[in-house]
Each structure stands twice: as C-alpha cells, then as structure tokens.
Amino acid sequence: MILKQTPIGEFDRRVCLLTLERGKISAFARGARRQGSRLAAATSPFSFGRFRVYEGRSSLTITEAEIQNYFEALRTDYVGAYYGMYFAEVVDYYGRENNDERELLGLLYQSMRALCSPALPNRLVKCVFEVRAIAVGGEYPGLPEDREYQTSTAYALRHIVFSPLEKLYTFQVKDEVLEELEHICALYRQRFWDREIKSLEILETLC
C-alpha cells in the first residue's frame, strides 16, 4: 500500500510503500505526474495492490501497478481521509525495511476498510488501530493501572490484541467504554511514541 508520496522534479514522484516481501520501501514513479500517466492514481496514498518494481544501482523504480482497492470513499470524505493519513503515518513509524510486515500491512488494510464502513464510528476504528499497532510493534503493556476500568473495556482490549485481523472490526461498544478506550490510547501514545504524529494534530482539530 502507498503510505505517502512526494513530488520530485517536474513530473516524477517518490513514494513510500509497505510491502509483504520487503517491508517498507521507497521507490520512484517516473512520469507519474504527467497528465494521463497510468501511474498517476496508482501512486496516490491509500492505493493497495500489486506493484512491479525495477531495482537499479541505487534506487527502486515502479514500472507497473495493478490496484485492487483505491479506498474511494476516503478520497471524498475529508475527515475520513485524515484518519487514513494518520493510520498511514503510524504504519510509516512502525514499518521497517527488509522486515516481515505482513501483519502491519493487514492491519492497515482492514483499518482502511473499516473507515469506509458507515456502520463503524471513526473514533472506535482509531482506538482499535492504535492498540493493535502498538501490539504489532511488540509494546502492548496490558490494561493500565492508573484507575479502575469497566469489564467491557478489558474485554474489548483483549479482542483488539488477540483476534484475527479479519475479525478485528466486528464489535461495537457503548459510549462510556469508547471513552475509556480513548483514554487508554492516549496513555499508550504518550508512553510508546517518541515523536509527534503530525496528522494526529490536524485530526484532533477536526473531531
């Protein structure tokens, strides 16, 4: 999946992808900003599919792309798009080159799908994504001990951490449980993330 893209020169792009085979990589898309380029949409953020990459002496170049999901709903939903950008930035934070990022990529894909579902509140999707991303990163500390939490909150956390990715977004919670999850996520972010996530700052002004 394309995590981000940067204009290079007059017509090119440099993109950051999370891949199954090689973890997080950077690659050039020559001419992707030319009008009518077949790589224009394929190298936009959130594009998920198969990419053919040529390995040169010092860089990778995308030559073909077969996109399976553009997540079009996020491209027309201003707030949803910022949630997507936030998720992509967190994955960029955790992703590593030449690493097995199968679970991280699966988490990102399922979370993007959840953002596109009108049945799931974005606040819940965000909590689920944050907790599972921290767990994938090997940093999940369990239920915080700063106060007493509802049994339903502890159950929701266990589901988020241990359920298969395809079952991750198959539950809803009451408002009071969601508020506790948001509190826990804020504690986790402060404890485990050693840099500011810029898209989160923007997202918090929108919601």
Q: Can you give a write-up of this model?
A:
This protein is of the alpha+beta class and 207 residues long. 43% of the residues lie in helices and 19% in strands. The strands form two sheets. Strands 1-2-3 form a three-stranded antiparallel beta sheet. Strands 4-5 form a two-stranded antiparallel sheet. Helix 2 packs antiparallel against helix 7.
- CATH domain class of the largest domain: Mainly Alpha
Low-confidence stretches: none
Summed up, the domain count is: 2
CATH topology of the largest domain: de novo design (two linked rop proteins)
Write the topology of this structure.
Elements: E1 2-8, E2 12-19, E3 23-29, E4 48-55, E5 60-69, H1 72-75, H2 78-94, H3 102-115, H4 122-136, H5 151-162, H6 175-192, H7 198-206
Antiparallel strand pairs: 1-2, 2-3, 4-5
Helix pairs in contact: 2-3, 2-4, 2-7, 3-4, 4-6
Briefly summarize what is shown.
The chain is of the alpha+beta class and 207 residues long. It is 43% helix and 19% strand. The chain has 2 domains: 68 residues, Nucleic acid-binding proteins (OB fold (Dihydrolipoamide Acetyltransferase, E2P)); 132 residues, de novo design (two linked rop proteins).
